[in-house]
Amino acid sequence: MSESGAGGQPSGGSLSSYVAELYDTCGQRKAMGQSSPEFARPHFFLLRTFLAENDLLVILNTKRCRYQCAFCRLPAKSIRSWVPDSDVLAQFRFVATEVRHALSVVDRVTLSNEGSVLDESTLGGGALREIMSAIGAMRRVRRIDLESRLGFVRPDWLRRLRAEVPRATLGVLTGFETLNEHIRDEVLVKRETLAEFLAGLDNVALAGAALTAHVLFKPDPQMSDNAAGIEAMETIQFLTAECGGRDIELTIRLNPMYRAAGSSWAAAADATAGYAPPRLTDVIRVAEQAAKAGIRVYIGLSAEGLAGDGGTYRAREDYSPALIKRVKLFNDGPGAGIGRADSAAARVPSLVS
Ligand code: SF4
Question: How many domains does the chain have?
């Protein structure tokens, strides 16, 4: 089989075992977390469903993120030196070639570089603009999400990028994680104050862009299961109100916290008596409550190939494959189609556990 699996040669054996192997190596179970072997290849790509749409996720291989958030090991995948625009463009060309027979069904594209694609000290603006133009050639695409910290959002630049794909909504995908300032500053070491986040949100609004925000479920290893649910709901309420007040379309990606092997967060978790990863049942309950209140929510199950043993929801007593099925039904089901967040944060119910 080829490096990516796609387009590989039959490896012998039955047709069904060949297809099963392709399904596992190129589909949702595709291995994640490895660094790209060369400049001209991305770290990862996957054609997946996201909120009942076909989303092409591309994780570019660029200079590494300059931040060192305590819970995150993603920057370690990338090198410290500059990756020329020509290599970045070759990465996207490689992905387009690999998924060529499915390009006409791609509804949306998510562009990441395990950091901030809007940080021009890691990814060249010229390369990003050319990739946007290439996405414009995928005529079914109606949404493009650029992953970035909000501090790198410049409204004029976003508007120029958006002009490359006028039929699509441009979104910024960002890790908000939590409303709790102690957790942001001391536990996650985000180096992004709430004031800085809100200033970035003003720029998202000025650019006329949408927002998708990662919310971490149980971001503090010292949190109880009950406190985690309450904190997640308060965070979702906050984002709903702030985006509603700025007329920004909001999507929440609710991610059960995983213990990233080798991170200082993992060391703190290991040193915490009684630490336990989140219960998926609790994550689903919060997501369902938010969806019921009209908020667009997606439950992110991936540990990005970086979690150590026992570091995810799978280690909890409630875990079963049936829960995964429930999450998939939720992500692709009626809750997936819920539209704009509005300013009525009061409509979000308190979590009663
Ligand atoms: S969370 Fe984002 S900003 Fe922080 S280290 Fe990871 S990739 Fe960089």
Answer: 2
Between the alpha carbon of residue 59 and those of residues 92, 146, 303, the distances in Å are 9, 11, 15
Distance CA 327, CA 90 (A): 35
* Interval 157-162 mean pLDDT: 97
* Encoded amino acid at 174, one letter: T
And the tokens for 121? 């000290």
Task: Give the distance (Å) from ligand 1 centre to CA of residue 331.
Answer: 25
* Position 308 in a domain: yes
| Residue at 251 is within a domain | yes
- φ and ψ of 304, to 5 deg: 55, 20
Give ligand 1 pocket residues (Cβ under 6 A).
Answer: 65, 67-69, 72, 74-75, 114-115, 149, 175
Residue 340's pLDDT is what?
36
Q: Say how far apart CA 189 and CA 67 lie, in whole Å.
A: 9
63, 66, 67, best to mutate for ligand 1 pocket (most atoms within 8 Å of CB):
67
pLDDT in tens, 100-157: 999 999 999 999 999 999 999 999 999 999 999 999 999 999 999 999 999 999 999 9
Q: Is 38 left (phi over 0), alpha (psi -120 to 50) or beta?
A: beta
pTM score > 0.85 for this model? Answer: yes
Domain of 105 in residue numbering reads as 40-172
Segment 225-236 mean pLDDT: 98
